[in-house]
Amino acid sequence: MAPGEVKAFAPSTLYQGVTSVQVDLGGELEEVLIDPLRGPALRSPFDGSQPKEGHSNFLRPLCIDPGRAQGEALTRNTSKPWTHYTATEREVAVQTAAKINRGRRRLAEARGGRAPELQAQPQQGFEYPP
User: Fold this and answer.
1) Do residues 67 and 13 make contact, with C-beta atoms less than 8 angstroms apart?
2) Residue by residue, what is the 3-state secondary structure of the chain?
3) By CB distance 3.0 to 4.6 Å, which of 19, 43, 61, 117 could disulfide with 104?
4) Dihedral angle over CA of 12, 13, 15, 17, nearest 10
5) Dist. CA 113–CA 9, nearest whole Å
6) Please, how many CA atoms are within 13 Å of residue 53, restricted to the half-sphere of its CB?
7) Tens digits of per-residue pLDDT, 65-76?
8) How many other CB atoms sit within 10 Å of the CB of residue 124?
9) Which pLDDT belongs to residue 23?
10) d(CA 87, CA 66)
């Protein structure tokens, strides 16, 4: 490659074709399901269950796409899709999802595997806008 020449992007093949991985979190294994287009899936925040077919609970994009971010306000969607993550970004995303999943699973186990009782709490002094 000549000086100043930019190498073409080659997508990472880490976790390519893998739908599930066991992540070692300090001696405790946590399963992370991986969607080929959207990346690591998260357990339900309500009952800690693994995601079902057709769910939409995925780890939010962790990485900004520098090509799209230049000159754009960061409030716009400048995040990279899973298919453009580098191997390091993919590893970090899977480790992050494993830690979130472990926390959600432990919380559900502490509640006896039940979803929390959600009750609307009236807020004092709050009025809906007209």
Assistant:
1) no
2) CCCCCCCCCCCCCCCCCCCEEEEEECCEEEEEEEECCCEEECCCCCCCCCCCCCCCCECCCCCECHHHHCCCCCCCCCECCHHHCCHHHHHHHHHHHHHHHHHHHHHHHHCCCCCCCCCCCCCCCCCCCC
3) 43
4) 140
5) 44
6) 0
7) 666 555 555 555
8) 5
9) 96
10) 16
pTM over 0.85: no
The residue ranges of the chain whose pLDDT is under 50 are none
Q: Whole-angstrom Cα distance, residue 94 to residue 2?
A: 35
Tokens 């939409």 correspond to what residue? 56
| Token representation of residue 85 | 């993550």
Tokens linked to 22: 């066991």
Q: Which amino acid is at 93?
A: A
Residue 43, C-beta contacts closer than 8 angstroms, at least 6 positions apart? 49, 50, 51, 57, 100, 101, 104, 105, 108
What gap in Å lies between CA 46 and CA 118, rounded to an integer?
10
Amino acid in the structure at residue 82:
W
